[in-house]
Amino acid sequence: MAAADTLESVLARRTCEGVLYEKLADRKVRCVSCGHRCIISPGRPGICKVRFNREGVLYVPTGYVGALQCDPIEKKPFFHAFPGEDALSFGMLGCDLHCAYCQNWFTSQALRDPASMAPPEDVTPEGLVDLAVARHAPVVASTYNEPLITSEWAVAVLRAARARGLRGAYISNGNGTPEVLDYLRPWVDLYKVDLKGFDDQNYRRLGGVLANVLETIRGLVARGFWVEIVTLVIPGFNDSPAELTRIAEFLVSVSPDLPWHVTAFHPDYKMTERDHTPVETLLAAAEAGERAGLRYVYAGNLPGQVGRWEDTRCPACRTPVVRRRGYRILANTLRRDGTCPTCSSRVAGFWWGEGGDRPAAPAGNPTRRPEPLPVPPPPRA
């Protein structure tokens, strides 16, 4: 990046016309990539600062990454898809929220915070997929920034991944729209949502609206994505037993098969005054999820300190079918079709599978076996 260049000007050269928008009168546009549904005047960006109106046309990011690495899929975290495998993880820059505790602020807040420096690196979809294949990663994941606001680029990458037999994943704040979920559905198999609490005032402090996220979770499950939910439990912010119970009860109302990861907070970015999450608080949150009726509850970010809450257990006989410590798989006895080796009950998830018919899907979050799929037709240009 030349000294005279601003990050805005560098990113503006790495854009193309978007798909997720509609044209309005007076050369304004309405973006539908996230729940803000920004109405953007000519010469202006949306709230995310990376989607902007140039003479009545919405331009969106393309052709670069701001972060790239191969991660254990458990780090995303997905505990019910390809245990022990890797996910080729890529991200761009920008976000539609501004969480003070963001752990990926160097990419997500790059357009808001001068201290954040994550210069873009030019790549092609095929180049990213080649890297995933070389690393034997069965999943390609859009992450690190908010993928909803860069969905056109993510779809370009995930289309190329699907053509090579790989699966697509989103690691997202869940501030979606029906339009973006329909756009993603042919290409995204796994979707992780950060449900940051159950208090709308707190959500608005982060730049979001709780109702949008709840509706996105419902919409994801209804459309057949494999969905896992994460709540970072922050002392004094969202850690009251009542709020955690409300989250669990909402998730059960969508599907008791939604895995819920309650994870420990550590001070980061602009939220350094709060304490680390005590293990007792995390265990209480996990127990609240189990009492509410969730079949799969996990406690994360405190490996080795939370006992059974790191393991996947059969919902029928409670046999531990995948045992973990942090992101490391200690033992995996789950059959490849997602059934328990002890009682043959199905464990909900997106499993490898081998032979036979597709496993029966429970109500809500559906068990889906990732057999080879035909490549869908390209999205609207």
List its salient traits:
381 residues; alpha/beta; TIM Barrel; 2 domains; 8-stranded mixed beta sheet; 3-stranded antiparallel beta sheet; 9 helices; globular; disordered C terminus
What this model shows, in words?
- The structure is a single chain.
- 23% of the residues lie in helices and 21% in strands.
- Helix 8 packs parallel to helix 9.
- The C terminus is likely disordered.
- Strand 18 and strand 19 form a beta hairpin.
- The chain contains nine helices and 19 strands.
- An eight-stranded mixed sheet has the order 8-9-11-12-13-14-15-16. The protein has a three-stranded antiparallel sheet with strand order 1-6-5, with no helix packed on it. A three-stranded antiparallel sheet has the order 2-3-4, with no helix packed on it.
- The longest helix is centred in the middle third of the chain and has 14 residues.
- It is an alpha/beta fold and 381 residues long.
List the helices and strands and how they pair.
Layout: H1 7-12, E1 15-17, E2 21-23, E3 29-31, E4 39-40, E5 52-54, E6 57-61, E7 64-65, E8 67-72, E9 86-91, H2 105-108, E10 121-122, H3 125-134, E11 139-142, H4 151-163, E12 167-172, H5 178-184, E13 190-194, H6 200-206, H7 210-223, E14 226-233, H8 241-254, E15 260-264, H9 279-292, E16 297-300, E17 312-313, E18 320-325, E19 328-332
Parallel strand pairs: 9-11, 11-12, 12-13, 13-14, 14-15, 15-16
Antiparallel strand pairs: 1-6, 2-3, 3-4, 5-6, 7-10, 8-9, 17-18, 18-19
Helix pairs in contact: 3-4, 8-9
